[in-house]
Design a protein that fits this description.
CATH superfamily: Creatininase
Number of strands: 6
CATH topology: Rossmann fold
Structural class: alpha/beta
Strand order of the largest sheet: 2-1-5-6
Distance between the termini: 55 Å
CATH class: Alpha Beta
Helix content: 40-55%
Shape: globular
Number of helices: 8
Number of domains: 1
Largest sheet: 4 strands, parallel
Strand content: 5-15%
């Protein structure tokens, strides 16, 4: 019988177990993803499942508590809409759990309030959903850090996948291709079914399937997970050391504290976030008759 794996998931721990885990390592993992098209071969929650699985493995290896994942993320506007028009095409239902950037990042501020008010020394924020939102996450954490005691670091999961798929350091991430599929296959094999991949050369967008998905490899996925776990362990150690040196004050305690932080520090900067720019390089807006047209333009009030 295989040994029982140590539980690290906040929602599955008893109160005494949470207190023990906190005492041993006051580190919190905050995980973000989205349900979006990932080809016919992968479940729609790939982004969150991938990031959550990696966070859980890292917490088991290095300590810490993993918060419940957040599957509501940035999509449907600006370059995301144009990307979907190109890569997903016209569909009856998008099956997206999407939010505009201003709502997603305000939610993140409330997650940080939970970390700071409970006294976590450090928090790693990992997004499995790509596009420029990860750059905005880093920008927001730089803005928030002076106002919060918990030491913060945000990243897309591919940042931790530095050796990449082939070990060349160049293939850190993709969309529903060999990298993401291999990672999900290693972490949640029941969520990958390569028999659903259409025959090579069959025309169509195939629900945003990556062109190199047929190169997916579960064993390589397991190696990439181990690489990411090592990277996250190093980052966690750096954050905890920084907290011990700086001994910062935990000040983000109430809902009102979050609202003030949002109104005075974060919201004024959101209009300049990369997710809020109209289009990415080389893109055209979705045509008026497209399912992706309704929300693509960023409203002036945002």
């Amino acid at each position: 019988m295989a040994p029982e794996r140590r539980e690290v998931r906040w929602e599955r721990l008893f109160p005494d177990e949470l207190e023990q885990a906190f005492a041993e390592c006051p580190l919190l993992y905050l995980v973000y993803g989205i349900c979006e098209p990932h080809g016919p071969h992968a479940t729609l929650g790939l982004d969150g499942l991938k990031a959550y699985g990696i966070a859980c493995e890292a917490a088991r290896a290095h300590g810490g508590i993993v918060a419940p994942p957040d599957y509501w993320h940035v999509h449907e506007l600006s370059g995301y809409a144009a990307w979907a028009c190109q890569r997903v095409g016209e569909v009856q239902r998008t099956w997206l759990t999407s939010l505009p950037p201003w709502q997603h990042f305000k939610n993140v501020c409330y997650h940080l309030r939970a970390a700071d008010s409970m006294g976590f020394h450090a928090a790693l924020l990992i997004t499995g959903h790509y596009g420029p939102n990860w750059e905005d996450l880093k920008t927001m954490l730089d803005l928030v850090q002076p106002h919060i005691g918990t030491r913060l670091y945000g990243l897309p999961d591919w940042e931790a996948n530095q050796p990449g798929f082939d070990g060349d350091g160049k293939s850190g991430g993709d969309h529903a291709g060999k990298i993401e599929t291999s990672l999900l296959w290693a972490l949640n094999p029941e969520c990958v079914d390569l028999s659903r991949v259409p025959p090579e050369g069959e025309p169509g967008l195939h629900f945003a399937m990556g062109e190199n998905v047929r190169e997916s490899n579960r064993r390589v996925g397991e190696r990439m997970v181990a690489d990411e776990v090592r990277y996250l362990g190093q980052k966690a150690h750096e954050l905890l050391d920084a907290y011990d040196r700086e001994r910062p004050e935990h000040r983000l305690r109430t809902f009102e504290d979050v609202e003030v932080l949002w109104d005075t520090v974060v919201r004024p900067a959101v209009k300049n976030f990369r997710s809020m720019q109209d289009l990415w390089v080389g893109q055209e807006p979705p045509p008026p008759n497209s399912v992706w047209h309704a929300n693509w333009r960023v409203p002036d009030r945002a």
